[in-house]
Automatic annotation (TrEMBL):
It comes from Pedobacter quisquiliarum. This is Uncharacterized protein.
């Protein structure tokens, strides 16, 4: 996943506290989950993602230009 795109996605999830997964975005969120950056909650009709501790660290690294 491209750095800028990853940064935007993680910032969006952080800003919203959680992010509803809209149609067509499942793959991107599953990729974030595979990296350990988000947890996808699938127990509701509308699945949503929240940042993990690793996701918060990655976001800070991206903001600091370390990645």
């Amino acid at each position: 996943m491209e750095r800028e795109y990853l940064l935007r996605m993680l910032e969006t999830i952080e800003h919203q506290e959680s992010s509803s997964i809209l149609g067509g975005m499942e793959h991107e969120y599953e990729e974030l989950e595979a990296h350990g950056y988000v947890t996808i909650h699938r127990e509701h009709v509308q699945h949503y993602a929240v940042l993990t501790a690793m996701g918060k660290l990655k976001l800070q690294q991206l903001r600091d230009g370390l990645e």
